[in-house]
């Protein structure tokens, strides 16, 4: 090593050279793993949209469809392994899963109307939900059924508003692209069934757990037999509420009935003004009169654990930011400053406390500890990254000059997903990013809680936003 000091004139020359290099760096551009120059929104909007379209086709649509179509019994196959082979142990067909595939296949056709294949996939799923999952005796949809289409005994015949919401969401999107009158009729029946039993006529909102006839289960749950349900049995919760708002937004688009608008506005204001804490995160559980359930009532007991009832769920927060803005637009409130401010705060809070500043991506969960938020789950679920990708680019379109640099974070998120979440060998997405959970490389690609709804929606919305940016710049 040469320890001799540089001559003054050489030091000045080096500083000038370094400064020149810094000035030239933006012109040289940054390249992502695909080799595309993504140093500016102008270039990214042209090149990245193509990359997203290719990734959507190669890593979402082609691995799943038509492989997921159950040609023997109807509907969509429930379980596929990490390499896309059929699982040896076949579990129930869950309403949420079937409805999400119905929504996705319909949404793909909306995005690409010339793709008649996906309209056929959607019609295939619709027939199964209509013929096998609707309860013809008591109304509403069963929580689950066997592969063959017989009602399953899950939850002893109880129904969940969360599942009904996704059924309404899928039916609405399917009707929007097919104009099948049977789909509209079933969507209307679903809404009316929810209205008759699950809706709270006194305080508003909807109850989650329902008896087979649709009346709510209001008594405390049995902790011994169902510990995960017992703590939240008679409460109103965030997850069902944001997806009820989502479903009614789609339903109002196909059936603009005054009562539907009334319920949509009700859910919109509840989510925006009751569920969202002023600091910018979702509060999770409320008593029927919308009194927040205190943490002391939800903390883990001696038998073991309800941590999930008192945490901050960053994925749901960024997803809710998008859903609020989407609903506001449908209600004609797209320029509403309060909604824009709250949506931005949800994203900013998640970036402040839940964003991995080293590799990128949103952690799964945090918890308030002594005035700060401690990360209690460092894993990064596939659906939360998809929702984060969409929310970050959406924030850039709304606040392009914001110091947060949403566009730069969007690029970092996409690079993270390309490196750690997308299966480059078999196609598809892992359940969790490999940086924190490498063992999940061989977990099932398809199961009751993993479909194509979050990532297909995120990719298509990002493609549309990127193309819009390209048009604006031109």
Question: Could you explain the architecture of this structure?
Answer:
The protein is mostly helical. It has a domain at 91-274: Glycosyltransferase (Alpha/alpha barrel), CATH 1.50.10. Helices cover 52% and strands 5% of the residues. The protein is built from 15 helices and 9 strands. The strands form 4 sheets. The chain has a 3-stranded antiparallel β-sheet with strand order 7-8-9. A two-stranded antiparallel sheet has the order 1-2. A hairpin with a 2-residue loop joins β8 (365-369) and β9 (372-377). α2 packs antiparallel against α15, α8 packs parallel to α11 and α13 (382-398) packs parallel to α15 (453-473). The longest helix is centred in the first third of the chain and has 24 residues, at 41-64. The radius of gyration is 24 Å and the shape is globular. The termini are far apart. Residues 1-31 have low confidence and may be disordered.
Write the layout of secondary structure elements.
Layout (H helix, E strand, L loop, with lengths): L7 H21 L12 H24 L28 E2 H17 L4 H18 L10 E2 L13 E2 H18 L2 H17 L11 E2 L16 H4 L5 E2 H17 L3 H18 L9 E2 L8 H4 L13 E2 H17 L6 H18 L10 E5 L2 E6 L4 H17 L7 H16 L31 H21 L1
Antiparallel strand pairs: 1-2, 3-4, 5-6, 7-8, 8-9
Helix pairs in contact: 2-15, 3-4, 3-5, 3-15, 4-5, 5-6, 5-8, 8-9, 8-11, 9-11, 11-12, 11-13, 13-14, 13-15
Which keywords apply here?
474 residues, mainly alpha, Glycosyltransferase, three-stranded antiparallel β-sheet, two-stranded antiparallel ribbon, 15 helices, globular, disordered N terminus
The CATH topology assignment of one domain is Glycosyltransferase
Strand content: 5-15%
Helicity range of the residues? 40-55%
- For the termini, the CA-CA separation is 53 Å
The count of helical stretches stands at 15
Low-confidence stretches: 1-31
Q: Give, in spatial order, the strands making up the sheet with the most strands.
A: 7-8-9
Radius of gyration equals 24 Å
Whole-number mean pLDDT: 88
């Amino acid at each position: 090593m040469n320890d001799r000091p540089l001559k003054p004139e050489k030091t000045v020359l080096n500083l000038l050279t370094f400064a020149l290099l810094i000035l030239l760096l933006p012109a040289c551009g940054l390249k992502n793993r695909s080799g595309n120059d993504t140093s500016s929104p102008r270039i990214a909007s042209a090149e990245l949209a193509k990359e997203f379209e290719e990734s959507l086709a190669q890593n979402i649509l082609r691995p799943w469809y038509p492989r997921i179509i159950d040609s023997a019994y109807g509907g969509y196959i429930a379980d596929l392994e990490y390499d896309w082979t059929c699982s040896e142990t076949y579990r129930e067909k869950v309403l949420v899963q079937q409805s999400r595939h119905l929504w996705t296949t319909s949404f793909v056709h909306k995005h690409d109307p010339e793709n008649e294949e996906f309209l056929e996939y959607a019609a295939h799923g619709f027939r199964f939900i209509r013929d096998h999952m609707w309860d013809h005796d008591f109304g509403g949809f069963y929580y689950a059924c066997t592969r063959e289409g017989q009602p399953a005994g899950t939850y002893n015949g109880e129904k969940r508003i969360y599942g009904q919401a996704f059924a309404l969401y899928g039916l609405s999107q399917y009707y929007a692209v097919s104009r099948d009158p049977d789909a509209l009729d079933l969507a209307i029946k679903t809404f009316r069934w929810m209205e008759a039993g699950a809706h709270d006529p006194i305080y508003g909102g909807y109850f989650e757990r329902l008896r087979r006839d649709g009346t709510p289960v209001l008594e405390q749950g049995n902790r011994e037999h169902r510990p995960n349900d017992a703590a939240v049995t008679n409460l109103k919760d965030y997850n069902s509420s944001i997806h009820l708002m989502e479903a009614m937004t789609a339903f109002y688009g196909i059936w603009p009935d005054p009562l539907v608008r009334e319920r949509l506005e009700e859910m919109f204001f509840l989510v925006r003004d009751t569920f969202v804490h002023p600091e910018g995160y979702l509060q999770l559980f409320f008593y029927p009169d919308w009194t927040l359930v205190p943490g002391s009532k939800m903390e883990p007991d001696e038998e073991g654990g309800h941590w999930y009832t008192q945490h901050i769920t960053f994925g749901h927060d960024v997803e809710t930011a998008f859903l609020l803005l989407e609903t506001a637009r449908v209600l004609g409130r797209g320029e509403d400053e309060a909604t824009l401010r709250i949506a931005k705060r949800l994203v900013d809070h998640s970036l402040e406390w839940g964003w991995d500043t080293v590799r990128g991506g949103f952690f799964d969960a945090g918890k308030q500890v002594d005035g700060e938020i401690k990360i209690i789950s460092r894993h990064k679920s596939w659906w939360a990254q998809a929702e984060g990708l969409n929310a970050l680019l959406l924030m850039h379109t709304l606040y392009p000059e914001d110091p947060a640099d949403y566009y730069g974070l969007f690029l970092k998120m996409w690079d993270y997903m390309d490196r750690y979440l997308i299966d480059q060998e078999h196609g598809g997405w892992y359940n969790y990013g490999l940086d924190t959970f490498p063992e999940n490389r061989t977990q099932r690609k398809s199961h009751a809680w993993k479909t194509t709804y979050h990532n297909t929606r995120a990719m298509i919305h990002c493609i549309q936003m990127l193309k819009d940016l390209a048009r604006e710049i031109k």
